[in-house]
């Protein structure tokens, strides 16, 4: 019953090899026993946020006032998207669509955006004919690829000279190079020209950023080189882009003001949600019930929920998802950082059978974790039923949660016994362990129409290559940034460790190989997104893509979730702490 066979994943070369049972058999569990007195773990500090958000005042009338101001402005913005057949006007509308995305406003105008892109794409040859501005072509390419339209990368051939290389005259065009670099992030496995363009653009941007560029342009270039827009969370990008756009001489005052109001409106929602979550977490009081082996990450889990869907209509979904992500953290740390092999196996058995009475057979700390698990799922289902009479069946999410727990047993076995997986075996199970599938499934609970949720679960259950590749990327980035921490606590189940052992590579060689793997996976994800765009509901695809963005936000430079100090804390502050003050709102 505890077997976890990798053949359920059809999109890998490993799946075509003979599989073997990776989990321990019940009779083998008796061979492993850990005395409580010998258990070691690293004590993790409590959250730095504490009750910060509980103490923040929220004025409901302020939210009403912001709503009225937004509603007064939106009709003017909507007129900018009115369709016409004029080619130059069509280009302006596409550039406006980019601004709406970059400023965090696109969700207000989804129908207008869809209509414009559909009609424009049908006439793309006419639209792009004769266009020689690098920035314009790059932005148009970015918009269409982002929305699932397979605009050919041949549009960039016009910027090459007779020698087949990108023209030297482009190297001083800072905005053009920036937008070209952003466009290259949407390259697929067949877009060789974008690989060339990425090298060309990045090399010249690195030179320009320390040169004569205005400070606000240098800042946005540095941000792009660190984490391109395509990999960044939409609302995190918007929080920075609003400040950048304000300093642009030719900014659209209507869109800028709407963006400021919108961001303030969203912040008020998020702070209310953090109040609810902080109170809920305090009521759980796990700190007094469990040893201090687990990470306190309520605020960070809410940040992930905002990355999954930041729009106001998903407020209840964010609260549910944040609670479930806290649960994933507690169960992960209970298994990986504290539990023994037989304890984790018993816990998995209880999860599989989903019977509250079985919890009595567990050690005291796992009794607490098991009860917490059942309470969180019941709470989420109960909350869903109370929202406008809609029923939120958690069966699909629970199924993925159970699969995730099976991966924990593999991890503990590999870390604490002499069983050693191949790198491919590890990457398969590790892709599940990085919680990509489970997080997408849990995120689907927050969507509205039940038909959309069911479609999402059916698609996820089919193990699509898009999600598989996102999961593999997540595992590689997670293990690369967490390698030192894992090894320091004696946890050897890490992709870096297994790759070095299997291929005789040095740590530096392994990181170089991982960099190429990640880039190849990103191009594969882009390829799959274009293939899947018309077959799967955009709401579902967006959850998967946004879940992938959580990985980039967390592991771009270090393990920001385990050690949030630094860039990850700045992300939290930019959304939840640094309010758009009154002077900024009206300027």
Topology:
Blueprint lengths: L59 H20 L7 H16 L7 H13 L1 H5 L5 H13 L27 H11 L7 H18 L5 H12 L7 H13 L6 H32 L1 H4 L8 H11 L6 H24 L2 H13 L10 H23 L8 H22 L6 H11 L2 H9 L5 H12 L3 H24 L6 H9 L3 H26 L5 H18 L11 H11 L4 H5 L1
Helix pairs in contact: 1-10, 2-3, 2-5, 5-6, 6-7, 7-8, 9-10, 10-12, 10-13, 12-13, 13-15, 13-16, 13-18, 14-16, 16-17, 16-18, 17-20, 17-21, 18-19, 18-23, 20-22, 20-23
Question: What's this entry about, in short?
Answer:
The chain has helices at about 60-80, 85-100, 110-120, 125-130, 135-145, 175-185, 190-210, 215-225, 235-245, 255-285, 285-290, 300-310, 315-340, 340-355, 365-385, 395-415, 425-435, 435-445, 450-460, 465-490, 495-505, 505-530, 540-555, 565-575, 580-585. It is mainly alpha-helical and about 575 residues long.
Which characteristics define this entry?
Glycosyltransferase; 25 helices; Farnesyl Diphosphate Synthase; 0% strand; 587 residues; 2 domains; globular; mainly alpha
């Amino acid at each position: 019953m505890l077997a976890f066979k990798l053949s359920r994943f059809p999109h890998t070369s490993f799946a075509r090899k003979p599989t073997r049972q990776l989990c321990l058999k019940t009779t083998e569990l008796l061979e492993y026993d850990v005395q409580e007195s010998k258990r070691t773990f690293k004590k993790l500090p409590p959250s730095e946020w504490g009750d910060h958000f509980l103490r923040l005042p929220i004025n409901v009338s302020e939210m009403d006032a912001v709503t009225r101001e937004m509603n007064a402005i939106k009709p003017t913005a909507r007129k900018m998207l009115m369709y016409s057949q004029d080619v130059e006007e069509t280009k302006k509308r596409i550039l406006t669509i980019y601004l709406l995305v970059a400023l965090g406003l696109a969700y207000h105008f989804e129908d207008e955006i869809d209509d414009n892109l559909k009609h424009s794409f049908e006439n793309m040859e006419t639209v792009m004919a004769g266009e020689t501005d690098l920035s314009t072509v790059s932005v148009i390419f970015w918009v269409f690829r982002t929305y699932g339209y397979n605009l050919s990368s041949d549009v960039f051939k016009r910027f090459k000279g007779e020698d087949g290389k990108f023209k030297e005259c482009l190297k001083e065009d800072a905005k053009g190079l920036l937008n070209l670099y952003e466009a290259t992030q949407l390259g697929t496995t067949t877009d060789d020209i974008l690989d060339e363009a990425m090298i060309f653009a990045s090399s010249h941007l690195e030179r320009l950023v320390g040169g004569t560029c205005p400070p606000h342009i240098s800042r946005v270039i540095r941000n792009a080189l660190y984490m391109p827009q395509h990999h960044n969370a939409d609302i995190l990008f918007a929080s920075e882009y609003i400040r950048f756009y304000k300093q642009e001489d030719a900014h659209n005052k209507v869109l800028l003001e709407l963006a400021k109001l919108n961001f303030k409106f969203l912040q008020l929602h998020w702070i209310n949600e953090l109040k609810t979550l902080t109170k809920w977490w305090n009521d759980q009081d796990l700190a007094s019930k469990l040893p201090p082996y687990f990470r306190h990450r309520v605020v960070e889990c809410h940040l992930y929920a905002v990355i999954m869907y930041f729009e106001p209509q998903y407020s209840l979904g964010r609260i549910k998802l944040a609670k479930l992500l806290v649960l994933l953290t507690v169960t992960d740390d209970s298994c990986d950082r504290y539990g023994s092999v037989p304890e984790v196996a018993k816990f998995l058995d209880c999860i599989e059978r989903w019977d509250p009475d079985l919890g009595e057979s567990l050690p005291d700390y796992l009794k607490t974790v098991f009860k917490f698990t059942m309470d969180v799922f019941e709470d989420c289902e109960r909350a869903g039923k109370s929202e406008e009479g809609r029923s939120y069946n958690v069966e699909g999410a629970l199924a993925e949660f159970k699969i995730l727990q099976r991966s924990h047993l593999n991890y503990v076995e590999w870390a604490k016994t002499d069983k050693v997986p191949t790198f491919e075996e590890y990457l398969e199970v590790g892709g599940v362990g990085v919680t990509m599938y489970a997080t997408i499934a849990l995120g689907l609970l927050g969507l509205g129409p039940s038909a959309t949720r069911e479609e999402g679960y059916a698609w996820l259950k089919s193990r699509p290559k898009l999600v598989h590749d996102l999961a593999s990327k997540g595992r590689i980035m997670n293990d690369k940034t967490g390698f030192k921490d894992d090894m320091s606590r004696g946890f050897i189940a890490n992709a870096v460790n297994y790759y070095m052992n299997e291929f005789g590579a040095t740590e530096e060689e392994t990181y170089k190989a991982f960099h190429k793997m990640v880039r190849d996976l990103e191009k594969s994800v882009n390829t799959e997104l274009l293939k899947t765009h018309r077959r799967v509901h955009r709401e579902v695809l967006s959850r998967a893509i946004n879940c992938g963005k959580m990985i980039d936000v967390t592991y771009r430079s270090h393990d920001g979730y385990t050690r949030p100090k630094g860039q990850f804390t700045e992300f939290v502050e930019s959304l939840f702490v640094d309010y758009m003050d009154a002077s900024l709102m009206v300027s």
